[in-house]
Amino acid sequence: HDLPSRFNEDMLKHCRSLSLWTNMCKFTTNAGLGPPLENVNGVFSDTGWYATNQFTVDVIFSNRMKQYQCLTRDPSVAAAFFVPFYAGFDIARYLWGYNISMRDAASLDLVNWLMNRPEWKIMNGRDHFLVAGRITWDFRRLTEEESDWGNKLLFLPAAKNMSMLVVESSPWNANDFGIPYPTYFHPAKDDDVFTWQERMRRLERKWLFSFAGAPRPDNPKSIRGQIIEQCRRSKVGKLLECDFGESKCHSPSSIMQMFQGSLFCLQPQGDSYTRRSAFDSMLAGCIPVFFHPGSAYTQYTWHLPKNYTKYSVFIQEDDIRKRNVSIEERLRQIPEEEVRIMREEVISLIPRLVYADPRSKLETLKDAFDVSVQAVIDKVTNLRKDIIEGHTDENFIEENSWKYALLDEGQREVGPHEWDPFFSKPKPGGDSDDLSAEAAKNSWKNEQRNQS
Length: 452
Known about the structure:
The radius of gyration is 21 Å and the shape is globular. The protein is built from 17 helices and 9 strands. It has helices spanning 9-13, 29-32, 57-65, 87-94, 100-115, 157-161, 190-202, 224-233, 252-260, 277-283, 317-321, 327-332, 336-353, 368-389, 401-404, 420-423, 432-451, and strands at residues 81-82, 128-135, 163-168, 176-178, 207-213, 237-241, 262-267, 287-290, 313-314. The strands form 2 sheets. It has a 5-stranded parallel beta sheet, with helices on both faces. The two termini are 38 Å apart. It is an alpha/beta fold.
């Protein structure tokens, strides 16, 4: 769609208003990649590395779409319709100190614009998709109370027909899909990727495991405190403490150097399920260790293998929280050959986890953009097929959306799952969506502290 500029480019013209605490103007340069990173310590490649902000997927994705070889202006032959609305930047402007009318204005305007287009009427928007570089909870306000968090974009009836690609999706809703956070690496050609992969294979990794992050003392359920303590006690663990204010965690070079020297990288929940660090660590060839299935396994089903044991280690949060399990001992038990195979799997995944430079094209490799677009096209194609063949979704249970994402091709029914306890909604006394909205608010608060 050729949207009016108020939905995208005008936001970039007023880039200083996109965040209360960060001047986003520098991060929207270079087609959304941000300023180039100098390879002072030899941690990066000489080209393709940028100080990319983790919330700029809106711009990166839209600029990549302009280079997409299969664009058409003929709606009758279109497999899907891309809506270049910068939804993440839109809500970022108005989350603090603005009423819900202001927070919802652009979303309502967009939906009204789309519904008046002839392209919308082809499938009532079910062949439309957009991208937002923020977590889903910023777009899922549950009530009309001014004190409630976010806007209601993803709860609008029309938006429920569309697909929204976000860096963290909801396990219980069907209209959003997880795509990778952007990393610092944006290759311009295939050789950039191959050279980097080979370098990650050859590295000597002196640390058994590492963790980059800050504690969450205000969150009694967080296991970060225990993880930090285990890192401090271990002679084979490396810790990069992300205290508020000045910190090496704000240095891409320091982060990537630690990940490149580690066999395993610990990736507990942040304020919400996911964190960018998981993708930074895999880019460095470091095997991620997850503690909640919502941190990766139910999120990035388009980009990561459904068999999570191929590329990661899973240690349940309660093993750390209640049983005081030693992370070091658990990781030492993994045979050396198995570690080598897992690391090779991680390194092989790198192309589909990074966003190529929007100003160029990869020749044979499929990056995170390519994987996402193909998944959307496959989704819409299957939906059209179901409509033609008369299949209905009358047995579909939206609250089990995370289970459907894990089904094998051809499967339609879901049943009990080992991860049910992780995604059960607490009743009575609250709804998981409420808790997730609170997590989103905490995420913004920590972002504020980090930038102050």
